[in-house]
Amino acid sequence: MNFERLSPRLGFLLGFAACAGLLGIGAYLQFVEELEPCPLCISQRLAILATGVVFLLAGLHNRGRRIYAVAAAAVALVGASISARHVWLQHLPPEEVPECSPGLEYVFQHFPLADTIKLMLTGTGECAKVDWTLLGFSIPAWTLLAFLLLAAWAGLQFVNGGGQPDRE
């Protein structure tokens, strides 16, 4: 595929479609396969949603291509850092895994917002559990790869003029 001929609008909308697909996979794993998401999984889903919103806005707005590309890459890299922490937790020796916390619903109801956000971004013992793998990689490892690919795709949109002059 010749990316130089791909319009930036279509490129951003393809990025949005990828994010929507990732959220669909997450919903399938949760509701069909009955894999309950941990706090870091939920944080990763929120980062995918945020990345998708930036891609969608860029595709609909069709101006400021480079600004949107940088924003999408930045949000995707934040998501990648959350995924990297999750992968790191999954590879800790059992004696170094943090303790499990109360359920997220309980935490939202009884803890201050700052503590809840900290819990969602740092993870707990249940985040270290590997429930599912594909080709030897856990869900957070695949999500890390997806975030890195989304950031790279955003980078391509930064340089992709689609044969048109910049309309910044």
Q: What report would you give on this structure?
A:
The chain has 168 residues and is mostly helical. The chain has one domain (8-159): Up-down Bundle (Bromodomain-like), CATH 1.20.1550.10. Helices cover 66% and strands 2% of the residues. The protein has six helices and two strands; from the N terminus they run αααααββα. The chain has a two-stranded antiparallel sheet with strand order 1-2. The mean pLDDT is 82.
Kindly list the characteristics that best describe this protein:
168 residues; mainly alpha; Bromodomain-like; two-stranded antiparallel sheet; 2 strands; chaperone; cell inner membrane; transmembrane helix; electron transport; oxidoreductase
Please specify the SSE layout and strand pairing.
Elements: H1 8-31, H2 39-61, H3 65-90, H4 104-110, H5 113-122, E1 133-134, E2 137-138, H6 139-159
Antiparallel strand pairs: 1-2
Round the mean pLDDT to the nearest integer and report it: 82
Helix content range: 55-70%
The helix/strand order is HHHHHEEH
Which CATH C-level class is it? Mainly Alpha
Q: Name the strands of the widest sheet in spatial order.
A: 1-2
Beta-strand proportion: under 5%
**CATH architecture descriptor name:** Up-down Bundle
Secondary-structure-derived class: mainly alpha
Low-confidence stretches: none
Number of helices: 6
Principal-axis shape: elongated
The total of beta strands comes to: 2
